[in-house]
Structure formats: structure tokens, C-alpha cells
Write a structure and sequence with these properties.
By secondary structure, the protein is of the alpha+beta class. Helix content is 15%, strand content 24%. It starts with 5 loop residues before the first helix and ends with a strand.
């Protein structure tokens, strides 16, 4: 769920919508690629070549085969409140591999069963974890439901990716009481300050600052989380101090023309923010 009080959530959502409707400022240096194609999690040799090789291969595949059509829309609208069905009800929809229609109900998702959340986005086409564009139907993301899990004991890479929920795993619900106010805020530094941290390829530690992010410079947002990996394989290691800001998600601009609407949380380096 949102960290914002109920009386400010609507205003905050409208403000973010106005910001994302503005044209993106032109950056003299930028990497025109998805941030999740250049994560702040690096691989030790020789594994470091695997991710770039896979990305190049899948981009070539898309150029040859084209972009898949959008999947069917969800029965739930953005902003509606839903309850995640009980673990028993969800399990009854899954096959032996914990999947429904090919979509995996992950270990992190069980902690959200029985909870009430707001539909954040309807996903109909997305770039998957292997850089392949996929068609997806009757699926949404829920505000606050990420792969970081619902409790401090949950493990993960720390990126807090939005989890995908099939319509079959949800049911309509009433809005819950207002959540507590955010505990921490950050202001995005000026474009000039951010550019001073970027290399010639428009990245910092391999993570791109793309043009659409420049819409948010000078603005103050609640801090959703610090990216702190808690369970990585031995051949991977984190680099830098990164944060995610509440409500700021990629709208697919780096993959223009491909139509990715996964809406991953944007990554902000410590040097791009003034933390309070």
C-alpha cells in the first residue's frame, strides 16, 4: 500500500501524472536503454558477459520477429482496491510448478495473501527478466506489493520489483484505513548536478539516467526504500548506494516503440538526491 496518507495520496498521484505528461528535457549524454538492463548489481568474471550477450541476442530477436501484441486487459481498473485471495484459494489455481497460464506465483507473493492493496497498473506487455518482450493478459501490479516481500525476513536482490498478480488471484475489496505518513523524503538534484556524475555513455556505475527521469529534477518525493540486496549468488555483488522514490516508475520511454508497461521502479543514486 501507499506510504502516503489518504488525504494526500490523490493529490500526489495527480502531481506525478502532470509531471510524466511533460516533455522530457534533452540530455546531451544519456543511455537510451532500460535501467534494468544495467543494474547496480554486477557479476564477477567470467559471468559479466552473460547479461550483455543475452540482451543483444533478445534485441536482435525482436528486430527480426517484431513486438508481440498486447494481452487482454484486466477486469480491475487502476486505482481500485482489491484483496489478494487466501493462500489456499491461490494454490487451487496453480499447476505443479506454482504457475497459472505460465505466470509464476513467486515465494515472495505468499506474504501478501489476504492483504488489501490498490491496483497500480494493468500490465499487458512487458520486458521479462531475460530481456524478452512478452504478451501478458489479465494481470496487474499492486501498490506496495514488491518482491521485497511483506516482512523483514524476506530475501531478495533489493530492487523491489513490482509483483504480477493474475485477476484469478484477486477479489474486489473496500479501501483500508489510511496508512502512516512517510518517514523520509528526498529531493531530486538539478540536471546539471546529475550530469556531472555521469560517464560519456550517460551511466553511473553502469546504470543509465534516462531523459524521462529529468522531469523530476527539483521535486520532493517520499523515499520508498533503499536498494539493499539481501540474497545474491556468490558471483554477483552490489555497487553504489541506490534508492527508489515512492510513485516514480518507468513508463517505458527507454524502450520506445516496444510498448513495455511493466513500470519498474526508477533507480536513483545517492548523488542524484538530497536526502532529508
Amino acid at each position: 500500500m501507499s506510504q502516503l496518507p489518504a488525504d494526500t495520496e490523490a493529490a500526489d498521484t495527480e502531481k506525478i501524472a502532470r509531471l510524466t505528461a511533460l516533455p522530457a528535457p534533452r540530455l546531451p549524454m544519456q543511455a537510451a536503454r532500460c535501467q534494468y538492463e544495467g543494474l547496480p548489481i554486477h557479476a564477477r568474471p567470467p559471468f559479466g558477459v552473460l547479461r550483455p550477450t543475452r540482451r543483444i541476442r533478445e534485441h536482435a530477436r525482436m528486430r527480426l520477429s517484431g513486438v508481440p501484441a498486447e494481452g487482454r486487459p484486466s477486469a480491475y481498473e487502476v486505482g481500485s482496491w482489491v484483496s489478494v485471495r487466501s493462500a489456499e484459494e491461490v494454490r487451487a489455481t496453480l499447476d505443479a510448478g506454482d504457475r497459472l497460464g505460465g505466470l509464476w506465483f513467486t515465494a515472495s507473493q505468499w506474504t501478501f495473501c489476504g492483504g488489501v492493496y490498490q491496483v497500480e497498473h494493468v500490465v499487458r506487455r512487458m520486458l521479462d527478466d531475460h530481456y524478452r518482450m512478452r504478451r501478458i493478459s489479465r494481470t496487474v501490479t499492486l501498490r506496495g506489493a514488491t518482491c521485497s516481500g511483506a516482512g523483514p525476513e524476506d530475501e531478495g536482490c533489493g530492487l523491489g520489483c513490482a509483483l504480477l498478480f493474475r485477476d484469478d488471484w484477486l477479489t474486489l475489496a473496500d479501501a483500508p484505513p489510511a496508512p502512516p505518513a512517510p518517514q523520509r523524503y528526498a529531493t531530486v538534484r538539478s540536471l546539471h548536478e546529475i550530469q556531472q556524475t555521469l560517464g560519456p555513455d550517460g551511466t553511473l556505475l553502469g546504470v543509465p539516467f534516462h531523459a524521462a527521469m529529468a522531469r523530476h529534477v527539483g521535486r520532493r518525493f517520499p523515499v520508498a526504500r533503499q536498494v539493499v540486496p539481501r540474497a545474491l549468488p556468490r558471483w554477483q555483488y552490489p555497487v553504489g548506494e541506490w534508492y527508489q522514490l515512492d510513485g516514480l516508475r518507468c513508463l517505458g520511454e527507454p524502450l520506445a516503440g516496444l510498448g513495455c508497461d511493466r513500470q519498474c521502479a526508477l533507480l536513483w543514486h545517492r548523488s542524484w538526491l538530497t536526502l532529508e
